[in-house]
UniProtKB/TrEMBL annotation:
The gene is hisG. Belongs to the ATP phosphoribosyltransferase family. Short subfamily. This is ATP phosphoribosyltransferase. GO terms for cellular component: cytoplasm. Heteromultimer composed of HisG and HisZ subunits. Coiled coil: none annotated. It holds the Pfam family HisG. It is found in: Cytoplasm. Residues 51-202 form the ATP phosphoribosyltransferase catalytic domain. It is an enzyme of class 2 (transferase). Keywords: Amino-acid biosynthesis, ATP-binding, Cytoplasm, Glycosyltransferase, Histidine biosynthesis, Nucleotide-binding, Transferase. Its EC number is 2.4.2.17. Pathway: Amino-acid biosynthesis; L-histidine biosynthesis; L-histidine from 5-phospho-alpha-D-ribose 1-diphosphate: step 1/9. Catalyzes the condensation of ATP and 5-phosphoribose 1-diphosphate to form N'-(5'-phosphoribosyl)-ATP (PR-ATP). Has a crucial role in the pathway because the rate of histidine biosynthesis seems to be controlled primarily by regulation of HisG enzymatic activity.
Length: 216
């Protein structure tokens, strides 16, 4: 049996559709009821719906053999997993953004609101810039508007949230996409099965590429 952690939410359906098209469907799967585990005994595949930021934990600890997580999550939490494949979906960027016209041109400690504490710390350390991190869990764009922070470090996909709140990208830190990851020990025990899944998924990546997005 191969246990696969799927991210709930905006990535979930796209990711499952890729697995199904790659030859690993699970007819009973649904994201509209409260069931979390779905099994296809014929193909020996079991899917779990997991909170996106938790996928890497399930995989790292072996509760799932493989799973799909955004590069943002992998960079932030650096789980001990194998990153097998860039699925080329869930494309976005992690960016520094601020109110239109903001310039970081004083020596004052910069106040940065973000969900991504570790990436933010690393980024500003590499720029030798003193910062005060304000850890938020959502609606990050509110922080500079209400003067809770000077800038934010957050995900930008279409740019709509920034635009509708009169913010703009200052700098891009990291391009992001969804990655297929595997538990290190389970990969050894189940290598032929997992490699098989990986190569079938790879064919889907090239077949169903989202294409290049244009950003603001
Ligand atoms: N517009 C976007 N906003 C956030 N994440 C995005 C976006 N576009 C693509 N992604 C990718 O999708 C992944 C899952 O995002 P989603 O918003 O579904 O989860 P989340 O609500 O941020 O996760 P959690 O509930 O675990 O905090 C992100 O980790 C990122 O890699
Ligand atoms: O560039 P866009 O297409 O507008 O997407 C970016 C927005 O989407 C995410 O928020 P999410 O919808 O996950 O809500 P949140 O504020 O609760 O994190 C992200 O944190 C940005 O706010």
């Amino acid at each position: 049996m191969i246990n696969i952690a799927l991210p709930k939410g905006r990535l979930g359906k796209k990711v499952y559709d890729m697995f199904a098209a790659a030859g690993y469907p699970c007819p009973s799967i649904s994201d509209t009821n409260r069931k979390l585990i779905f099994e296809n005994p014929e193909s020996g595949i079991r899917y779990f719906w997991v909170k996106p930021s938790d996928v890497a934990i399930y995989v790292e600890r072996g509760a799932a053999d493989i799973g799909v997580a955004g590069k943002d999550i992998l960079m932030e939490y650096t789980p001990e997993v194998y990153e097998l494949l860039d699925l080329n979906i869930g494309k976005c960027r992690l960016s520094v953004a601020a109110k239109k016209g903001f310039r970081d041109n004083t020596d004052k400690t910069l106040r940065v609101a973000t969900k991504f504490k570790n990436i933010t710390q690393q980024y500003y350390r590499s720029h030798c810039r003193d910062i005060d991190i304000i850890k938020l869990n959502g609606s990050i764009e509110l922080a500079p508007i209400l003067n809770l922070s000077d800038v934010i470090v957050d995900i930008v996909e279409t740019g709509t949230t920034l635009r509708e709140n009169n913010l703009e990208v200052v700098e891009t830190i990291l391009p992001i996409s969804a990655r297929l990851i595997a538990n290190k020990a389970n990969f050894k025990f189940k290598s032929s099965r997992i490699e098989d899944i990986c190569s079938h998924m790879k064919l889907q990546c090239s077949a169903s590429s989202e294409g290049e997005r244009t950003y603001d």
